[in-house]
Amino acid sequence: MKKLLSLLTCVVAAPLAAGDFSEGSKAKGWGLEGEQKALFEAKVVDVMCELTGDCPENCADGKRQFGLLRSADDVLIFPMKNGQRSFYGAVDDLAPFCNQTVMVDGLLIDNPELGAKNVFMVQFVLAADMEKPAKANKGTKVWAKRHPEAKGKGPWFRRDPRINAIIAEEGYLGLGLEVDKEYAEENF
Amino acid sequence: MMRALLAAALVTAPLAAHAADGARIQVSGEIIDTWCYYSGVMGPPDSTLGSAHHTCALWCSAGGIPVGLLAEDGTIYMILKVGEDDQSAGGDTALRMAAHTIEADGMLYQRDGLNYLLVNEVTSDLDITNASHDEWGNNPAFSFPDPNKQK
User: Fold this and answer.
1) Is B8 inside any structural domain?
2) Helix A161-170 × helix B54-62 angle, to 10°
3) pLDDT tens-place values along chain A, 188 residues long
């Protein structure tokens, strides 16, 4: 806890070197292209609201993508991913913090060749009323609450009714069931 | 102590939200899974496009990972709305278009190095035109379950 308070003090009190927000980060590296650990303070905003002024109540209840408006430089960071391995975004983990200023810890992705700039994987969130940072790993639990009918074994993405309906109609490759059949015969 | 620190942070944080100016554009390209394309977590960018990545793109889109449009010139647009559907996190409209090649008319907003697109209208949807599984198989490999193991 003392370490956390110490790093928070550093982040709040001292402007960081341009582009480097890695000091104090406890984020886990994923070995991603252009990843940089980053701990920073930001306001959780509805991106569409921030850009256009179209601002429904409570950030549209987490149906829209969030942004992280970084306090140090007013840069809009785009959080694409939460800390889970299982194909889940950051929205359900950030929704409880709509329009709050929080500390976030995670990985910034900077890959100019692909145009990746100011995109982020959030791994931890700390708000004013929290005693310690929370892992950004709640997404699949939120999914399970939304889909009680899909309760069962296996990962969420194998049980999601919408995904399964599209695969049943279009196949895994999306080109129709005949193409799937030919692919399976050739490859399995 | 922690509350005091965050209270101080709240006071010092910039408060002004500033809407950017948008520009109307028409753009064509492929609906992509932005995280896998940008991060390299699933391999080279080209392996995260088209039919090879269709199932993973469904997983990511349903999981709320932002959907993008990869234009023919390589520019990526983060899609925040399609028609009347502004559910850009896990919404049905974008989910249905995973890996499709489309033409769109919309409003472009640029902010801090990223392009954000509010699609007013999908003017054409050609379905999946990039049969990338011919080159990449299915990516990730487990996205297409072995039918022999399902029996």
Assistant:
1) no
2) 160
3) 344 444 444 444 444 445 799 999 999 999 999 999 999 999 999 999 999 999 999 999 999 999 999 999 999 999 999 999 999 999 999 999 999 999 999 999 999 999 999 999 999 999 999 999 999 999 999 999 999 999 999 999 999 999 999 999 999 999 999 999 999 999 99
Q: How many domains does chain B have?
A: 1
pTM over cut 0.95: no
Q: Does some domain include residue B147?
A: no
Within-domain flag for B38: yes
CA dist B81 and A64 (Å) reads: 9
- Residue ranges of B 114-143 with Cβ closer than 8 A to chain A: 114, 116, 118, 127-128, 131, 133, 137-138, 143
Backbone CA torsion sign across A7, A9, A10, A11: positive
Q: Across the interface, which of A52, A111, A163 has its CB nearest the CB of B58? A: A163
Comparing CB atoms, the residue among A65, A131, A163 nearest residue B59 is A163
Kindly state the tokens that stand for A164: 């399964």
The ipTM, to two decimals, is 0.90
Boundaries of domain holding B59:
24-130
